[in-house]
Design brief:
Chain lengths: 676, 471
């Protein structure tokens, strides 16, 4: 653990996540061999910027982490750059989350960094010089070894919004990436001196640049439930004062005026970065000065960047904020405003392109109109096509003439669509919950990729995912929920827990696992183990069997319900239930961390009541009880309630729960204000 | 200056009628002087807290003189019936005779002061509710135990410019007292109970939390609303509340509606500060409702509109209720003298000349063994006495070879020969007999300390119960 050397030998290492492990930018990144690190920003790939920025920070060695499938493409591409840097690839098709990659790195003696290193999270785009930050980090480390991580935060949130609370010496004591909810600042009296202050920053951009000590790898090795990088910070800040006094995290707030940094996680941030670059916000790096540009750009007022080799018709109009690629051909009367055009793009006569990004080698025939959209490589848009706002046309799609694409549509090649469906099965792709094939025009070479706004999508919107990898996890849990729910309808409650089989693990194994969990908890119930012990046992099982906590919940909750009796009069029953759940609530809380789980509880309990009429009158009582025991949060109940109201406004359950939800909503309003 | 300035004492009785007309400063100051001063035991056994001497002038002088100097033409002193006689006596008889006041009043018409008694034993907010009908406009609340020498015009100006609902004044407390062993009242428990935890946006000093640390369970939850509108906030513990508030008139209406609020400091101010966004939301709802209903014209938003000239930048503030803090400049001394420790600090500040109206004796008039003194009239001083950093009241008698160091001695005190007193507070009419050696002692009024007493850190009061100190 104490291999810390001051690092003055200059062997500064960087670890770069080249792959997003998720599908926020998919399409256009649907191709197996195309990864998000290759996204062009003003016609230069993201990874080139990242590597160049690392070179600037005097990084001599860089480890690139990616999926096995994109390794080849990436390594070929990187070789062409001829960088003065040792590049290593660490690839695997086994990883599900970033934490796995980190753990693998830790186990690789040849690659494992021995001194402080720079960690670049997926999609980080930055143009400022990290050398200063690294230097500051090292000075801090020399004074006190506990400063293990320095995180950089931009002052304006773009895609990864987060709030932090920071002590005067820069230590982060609270980090929250949820856009909703309040920020709880802990340890006011004990952590701070009387005269010091706590600074609270909200709406910061977590730009995904960390300077880490090797101790971080140890932390990941020891806590193998850390899924993504930010889990580390969360683990520290939620761990109470004991943790906060140990290894410390420094929050570096970037200057708002000179440091340009952002994370590309979705289309919005991709467009933001592209046009930010065009607008020269990332000065000193600009389109015409960036060293990797093979194209010779001429910077004109506007700003416009016109390459030396391109064909512009006399009557064409190139508007403000435009970058044209090499060999671009703009025909008569075509208008290009506020757009980025890649290399070898042919823009036919009378085309109109506005606020869009077009990658290389596409052909736009005559009278095509493109507005606020992304056109990927090798696309052909035939005469009179209209691409409306917010559309994405995937690579190599041929669009017939006179096609009118509706707003926010996604076009991909059909074979890619099926490919991506496979990927989904393999739990690689997660964001696209349902992809519906639909023919546009007559040619069958492409399909409409449509993301239905189902629960998953909404969730992704509402949660600011600091690390996209998290979602895979959630998806998995949802998979289980779906599978189980399907069976619950048909099965009796006693047997249902064992029938569920999921695609992700062999049915036999899972069955055994569930049986084991059931036995363990049954024993705990019968022998009246203290809840803490039960939690420990279940946790051990969870880790040993490598299953998700929501799965455990789905086993133990039915067992708990079975223990409830309805004999005797109402007050006896309620009293009995209260004591029972007060006792076991700790276990439920532990395994019910996510809103989906909470909703599952509600749903399961509803169906349970539907089957057993004697339980009916206690429906709302148990919900309240679970709320009082902090198992269910008010948001979950309210959300679930509203969903139910939508689907069936006159059900008995809705009526029963109505008053309670009303009360909740009122209380929520007042409490959210009063605890300011 | 206002055209209806009141010149004679009679008009003070008719103050409510006269202030309906416009005034130079359209803020009505209210001085709360009804405190019992339980934490100043045993000094307050017989003396009234607001009249305890600070640099040989009653504490109330500080508030009144500050108001008068800031250009207020009227003020109200709120007290309780049991203290009414003493307070009125001071306000009507003695205050106008003070040298400084007389000096000022030669050029400017005097400030009309009204003394008003409210029901004994009620909270400050209750008292405010009782006198609400006498308050014609936006108002200023200050506590008589605040000792500060500051021109309030700046504060009022800021309040007006920001069109605030509430502006409160904070001062930055320096490093905590180094744990001097001879500092008697600074038990850590007591100081922490007095701490305020503040949450302020550093740019415009808008305040979002002002709560006593005793009410906070070591963690603070900051709601989404606040985070959304303020990208940067600072949480501090060493900014103390001065108990000097400038309030909009509609706050009285709020008080009338929320009968449960009974204390200004403990309930009203935290409520306003904490619920700014919520109240704004509520106001908008009321505004909508009252548009349809002319009857309900007493609501908050209409309250803010009573001022004729609406600020031009009104639109820049999306929310109606806004609380701001003003930080006292660091060169201005401010303390509330509500504990013995701070009472001493205030007097020490007087001796150091940190408070403008307090003048120490000229060096020339002092004898060889005397340093930094504030001495009242008619002091009879024995031979070979040494006085250092003392405040000594009127008509005191100090015997021979007496050594006083850092003491506060009130009026008519007799100190016998050969006494050595260090950091003591001796209340009026007390008699300290010969050869006493007292350190860090507090002596209530009209006590007699027998000869040859040696004591350290004790308080001599009527009852001999030691627990009353913090009772």
């Amino acid at each position: 653990m104490n291999h810390y050397s001051s690092g003055d030998d200059g062997a500064l290492k960087a670890v770069l996540f080249a792959d997003f492990f998720s599908g926020q930018l998919r399409p256009p990144c649907t191709d197996e061999t195309f990864c998000e690190a290759l996204l062009p920003i003003a016609n230069v790939c993201l990874i080139q910027y990242q590597l160049e920025a690392l070179l600037l920070a005097q990084v001599k060695e860089c480890i690139i982490i990616c999926r096995e499938s994109v390794k080849e493409t990436l390594s070929k591409f990187v070789e062409t750059l001829k960088l003065d840097m040792n590049l290593h690839f660490l690839a695997s098709s086994q990883w599900l989350v970033a934490g796995d990659a980190i753990r693998e790195l830790d186990s690789r003696g040849d690659l494992r960094p021995q001194s402080d290193f720079i960690l670049i999270l997926p999609g980080a785009f930055f143009t400022f010089n990290l050398a200063e930050v690294v230097k500051a980090h090292r000075t801090r480390r020399e004074k006190n070894k506990n400063w293990v991580v320095t995180c950089c935060f931009g002052q304006r949130s773009i895609s990864c919004s987060c709030d932090i609370a920071r002590l005067e010496d820069g230590q982060i004591i609270q980090y929250s990436s949820a856009r909703k909810g309040k920020l709880v600042v802990p340890g006011i009296m004990n952590m701070t001196d009387y005269c010091s202050r706590i600074e609270i920053f909200s709406n910061l951009e977590d730009c995904g640049i960390d300077i880490c000590a090797p101790e971080l790898l140890v932390e990941f090795r020891e806590n193998f439930d850390y899924d993504n990088i930010r889990d580390f910070i969360r683990g520290k800040t939620d761990g109470g004062e004991g943790e906060l006094l140990g290894n410390r995290i420094y929050g570096h707030i970037l200057s708002a005026s000179t440091d340009f940094a952002c994370r590309l996680t979705n289309m919005e941030s991709y467009f933001f970065v592209c046009f930010g670059f065009v607008h020269r916000w990332s000065y000193p790096w600009t389109v015409e000065q960036f060293p990797f540009h093979t194209t010779n750009y001429e910077y004109r007022r506007g700003p416009k960047y016109i390459p030396s080799v391109c064909t512009l018709a006399r009557s064409s109009h190139i508007g403000r904020c435009t970058v044209l690629g090499e060999n671009t051909c703009v025909d008569e009367n075509a208008v290009v405003i506020h757009s980025i055009i890649g290399d070898n793009v042919k823009i036919g006569p009378n085309c109109h392109i506005r606020d869009s990004i077009i990658w290389s080698n596409s052909i736009l025939k005559s009278r095509v109109s493109v507005c606020q959209s992304l056109i990927a490589d090798g696309v052909v848009l035939d005469d009179d096509c209209v691409v409306s706002k917010g559309s994405i046309v995937g690579p190599s799609v041929l669009v017939d003439s006179k096609t009118h694409m509706p707003k926010n549509s996604r076009l991909v090649r059909s074979n890619l669509l099926s490919l991506s469906n496979e990927m989904e099965d393999l739990n690689i792709d997660s964001s696209v919950a349902v992809s519906r094939e639909k023919q546009v025009g007559s040619a069958s070479s492409y399909s409409l990729w449509q993301e239905t706004l189902d629960e998953t999508a909404q969730q992704q919107d509402s949660e600011s995912s600091v690390d996209e990898l998290e979602q895979i996890d959630r998806k998995e849990s949802e998979d289980i929920a779906v599978v189980e729910n399907r069976e619950e309808v048909s099965a009796t409650p006693d047997s249902l827990s064992f029938k569920s089989s999921s695609s992700s693990s062999p049915p036999m194994e899972r069955k055994v696992a569930l049986q084991e969990i059931k036995d363990t908890f049954q024993r705990a119930l019968e022998e009246q183990h203290p809840p803490e012990t039960a939690v420990l046992e279940l946790n051990a099982l969870k880790l040993a069997l490598d299953i998700h906590s929501s799965l455990i919940l789905r086993v133990i909750f039915p067992l708990l319900l079975d223990k409830l009796g309805v004999q005797g009069n109402t007050s006896q029953v309620t009293q009995q239930w209260i004591t029972f759940f007060r006792y076991w609530s700790g276990v439920l809380i532990k395994f019910c961390p996510h809103s989906l789980d909470g909703k599952w509880i509600l749903k399961y309990w509803k169906e349970y009541c539907e089957r057993r009429t004697s339980y009916q009158k206690y429906f709302s009582f148990l919900v309240q009880l679970l709320y009082d025991c902090d198992v269910l949060s008010e948001e979950w109940i309210v959300e679930w309630y509203l969903e139910q109201v939508k689907s069936n406004p006159h059900s008995v359950w809705i009526q029963q729960l109505g008053t309670f939800v009303e009360w909740l909503q009122e209380a929520e309003e007042t409490s959210s204000e009063s605890e300011a | 200056m206002s055209n209806n300035a009141t010149n004679n004492a009679n008009t003070t009785k008719r103050i409510t009628t006269s202030c309906a007309v416009g005034h130079y400063l359209d803020f009505y100051p209210i001085v709360f002087a009804g405190g019992t001063g339980s934490r100043l035991h045993p000094l307050t056994d017989e003396l009234i807290k607001a009249l305890l001497p600070v640099g040989n002038k009653p504490a109330l002088f500080s508030s009144l003189y500050m108001l008068e100097r800031s250009g207020f033409t009227q003020a109200m002193v709120v007290t309780v019936p049991s203290q009414l006689a003493a307070i009125s006596n001071y306000v009507y008889e003695q205050y106008p005779l003070d040298e400084l006041v007389q000096k000022r009043r030669t050029s400017v018409s005097p400030m009309a002061i009204k003394v008003h008694a409210v029901t004994e034993g009620i909270g400050t907010a209750d008292a405010l509710r009782e006198i609400a009908n006498y308050i014609p406009s936006d108002f200023l609340i200050l506590s008589s135990d605040l000792i500060v020498d500051w021109d309030l015009v700046g504060l009022l100006e800021q309040h007006r410019i920001r069109d605030a609902s509430l502006t409160l004044v904070l001062y930055e407390d320096g490093k905590p007292q180094e744990k001097q062993p001879n500092l008697k009242y600074s038990s850590s428990h007591q100081t922490s109970a007095l701490e305020d935890v503040t949450l302020i946006s550093p740019g415009d000093h808008r305040i979002f939390m002002l709560e006593s640390s005793a009410d906070i369970e070591d963690q603070v939850a900051i709601s989404r609303n606040i985070l959304q509108h303020n990208s940067r906030l600072v949480l501090r513990r060493n900014w103390r509340d001065c108990h000097l508030y400038v309030c909009s008139h509609w706050i009285l209406e709020l008080l009338r509606r929320n009968v449960a609020i009974s204390s200004i400091k403990a309930e009203l101010i935290p409520y306003l500060v904490r619920r700014q966004y919520h109240l704004s939301k509520q106001c908008r709802v009321w505004q909508k409702l009252s548009k349809g209903n002319e009857q309900d014209s007493l609501d908050i938003p209409l309250g803010t509109e009573y001022r004729l000239e609406k600020p031009i930048h009104w639109i820049h503030f999306p929310d109606i209720v806004r609380c701001y803090a003003m930080l006292l400049p660091s060169n201005i001394f401010s303390r509330r003298m509500h504990t013995l420790e701070w009472y001493e600090q205030v007097n020490a500040a007087c001796l150091k000349g940190w408070i403008g109206w307090c003048t120490t004796e000229d060096k020339a008039s002092l004898k060889k063994n005397h340093h930094r003194l504030i001495i009242g009239q008619g002091l009879s001083l024995g031979d070979q006495s040494e006085l250092k950093e003392c405040v000594i009241g009127d008509h005191c008698h100090i015997g021979h070879r007496v050594k006083l160091n850092g003491c506060i001695v009130m009026d008519h005190v007799m100190i016998g020969d050969d006494c050595h007193l260090q950091n003591c507070i001796i209340s009026s009419n007390s008699h300290i007999m010969e050869r006493c050696k007292l350190k860090q002692c507090t002596c209530a009024a009209s006590m007699t300390i027998p000869a040859d007493t040696t004591a350290k850190g004790e308080s001599f009061g009527q009852s001999h119960d030691a627990d009353f100190l913090f009772g």
